Every structure is written in structure tokens, then in C-alpha cells.
Amino acid sequence: DLRKAIDGGLFLGPRLSGAAHYLSTTGGGGDINFLAPEVHVAADGRIADGVEEVRKAVREEIKYGSDWVKLLVTGAFMSAGDRPADVHFSPEELKMAVEEATRHGVPVMAHAHANAGIKLAIRAGVRSIEHGTFLDDEAIRMMVERGTYLVPTLYIGDYYIAHGSPTGYQEKMVELSKKYKAQQ
Predict the structure, then answer these.
(1) Gap between the Cα atoms of 138 and 50, Å rounded
(2) Which residues pair with 112 in a beta bridge?
(3) Is 80 exceeded by the pLDDT of residue 43?
(4) Contact 67, 17 (CB under 8 A)
(5) Is 81 left (phi over 0), alpha (psi -120 to 50) or beta?
(6) Which range (25-39, 106-120, 161-175) has the least confidence?
(7) Higher pLDDT, 9 or 1
(8) Which of 24, 119, 121, 148 holds its CA 20 to 30 A away from the CA of 140?
(9) In Å, how far are 28, 137, 154 from 115, measured between CA atoms?
(10) SS3 for 91?
């Protein structure tokens, strides 16, 4: 709505482009994995399992104005109940998401830490890899060949290592960041 108001000339503002809800799988990095199943909360993403649910989720994101589709292809550093090394979407689900979004002229970005997830996303044709924590030389070559962009996360882990987690909610990310930084 803010973008529409700016584009409509109601007031001056920056050019806005966004992906309203990320798409995740059940139990994936975008699912609410730390509460009992009878507790219902409004998540900031959407769960889509299987090819047809992915197709519908992509269509609805585009319908409601997303300029991009964001897929949580792998686990995350900041979410409970999963690991960054986990790959969540199947190759078929990824292919469907990219095909459906492309048909509508909307690019797809892939939140991906795990190298296997990065490569699946590149093969599926995503426009960009967000994070790319564990990418290897082969993944880099694939990205160059296909023109896939990398949007690395360079600082957030270092920030929380230095300053800690004020609420405790980022403690998983702090520990994982320390672990992986030590392996570099």
C-alpha cells in the first residue's frame, strides 16, 4: 500500500520493490517450529508443500503485489527447529516456483546457506542466492555461467558475536556464527 501511495503521487518516497511473504516448507526455516501444534500464530511467511501448493503460493504472492518471490530453500541461522545445512524444497518444487514466477515476469530469490540447496536453486533458475554461506567453487562457477547474483550476509553474524543476543532469541545464530567462523 505504501508503494502504491508513492507511485500514485500521494507523497514523495523511495522506489520500493519487495517480496511480501517468503515461502517455506513445513518444518523449514520459515515455519514456526518452536511452539506446540495447538498454538497458532501469524507467521510472516507462507508454508507451501508440494508442487501444486508452491504454484498456488507463487500466484497469490504475485496477485497481492510481490515484485519478487523469496523461497527459503534451506534452513536458517535465526529460526528454531532447523539447521542451515538442511535443504527443504524439492527440485520439483523449486522448478515450479521459478517457472510460475517467470511466466508472470517476477524474479525468484533463494534464501540458501547449504551448498546443496544453493546448487538446486541455481539449477532451477533463481535470479539470486541470498546468504550463500557454504557455497563452493562449483556453485560459484554455476552462478557465473547462469548469471545468478549473490547477496551475501557479511556482517550480521559478526555483529551478534561481538554484541551478543540482547533477548536471547538470536542465541542459535550467535553459536552457529562462531562455529562456522572458526572453520574458515
Answers:
(1) 28
(2) 131
(3) no
(4) yes
(5) left
(6) 161-175
(7) 9
(8) 24
(9) 16, 10, 17
(10) helix
